[in-house]
Amino acid sequence: MTEQHDLAEEFAPRKPRKGVYVLPNLFTLAALFGGFYAIVMAMNDHFDLAAIGVFCAMVLDSLDGRVARMTNTQSAFGEQMDSLADMVSFGAAPALISYEWALKGLGRWGWVAAFVYISCAALRLARFNVNTTVVDKRFFQGLPSPAAAALVMGFMWLMTDMGVSGPVVAWPMFAWCLYSGLTMVTNVPFYSFKDVQMKKSVPFVVIVLIALAIAVITIHPPIVLFVLFMFYGLSGYGLYAWRRAKGMQTSVISMSTDEPDEAGLHK
Question: Whole-prediction pTM value?
Answer without folding.
Answer: 0.84
